[in-house]
Amino acid sequence: MLRKTISDQSLGTDRWLSVDPLDNEIIQRLFKKDIREGEEKLLLAVLADAIEHFQKYALSKDEKGRKLFQEAEEWFLGKDSDQLLSVEYICGILQLRPNYIRKGLLSWKARQHFIEVHRAGRPKLVKAPVAHTSARRSKTA
After folding, report:
1. Which of the residues 20, 34, 127, 141 has the least number of beta carbons within 10 Å of its own beta carbon?
2. Tens of pLDDT along 101-115?
3. Quick check: pTM over 0.70?
4. For residues 101 and 87, is the Cβ–Cβ distance under 8 A?
C-alpha cells in the first residue's frame, strides 16, 4: 500500500515518472528499444533500396537507369562516415560490415558484365521454318 501511494504521488504530467527505479528503467529501455527498432527498419529499408537500384540498373541501357545505377554505386563506394545516411553509418547501426557488402556488390556486378559480354558475343539462333510431315498411315482396305 505504501508503494502505491508513493508512486501515485510521484506521477508527473507525463505519467512516466515512477519512484521505483526498476520500473522506470524498464519503461525507458522499452521506449528506446521501440525507437531503435524503428530506426533500424528505416535504415534497413534505405540499404535494401540502394541494393535494389544497384542490381536493377547495373546493365541498364537508358540514361535514367544508368544514372540511378551510378548514384547507387557512388553511394556504396563512398567512405564518408560523417553523413547521416552513409553506408558506413547505416552498416554501423545495423552491425554489418560495409566492405563485405561492397565486395559482394562489385563481385556481382563483374559477373553480370561477364555474362552480358558472353551473351553478346554468341551468335543468335535463327528459327527456320520446318516442314512437318504427317506420320499417319492411311488405311485402305
Report:
1. 141
2. 999 999 999 999 888
3. no
4. yes
